[in-house]
Predict the structure.
Amino acid sequence: MQFILIAHDRADGLPIRKQTRPDHIAYLTEIAGNIVFGGPLLDDDGNPCGSTIIYEVPDRAMAETLVANDPYSRARLFDRVEIRAFRTVVRDGAITP
């Protein structure tokens, strides 16, 4: 089952994000088998201001665990976090029924 993380950084989050990014990337490497795709949300100046990740996991509890263990979460980078069930309909230009 797929779940989408939509996380918005705190207003003062950019320095936290930059400092924590190497640990975050290492963590994503460890859990890559559970990630469909992901990347940062960008503000109008092109700076990261949040994260979006689509996880492929058995249930919501596992998605919540992956989010909670992310170094960005542990550093309290996020001001607001939403985790929702998700279904892919279009991917790489192809429609999936």
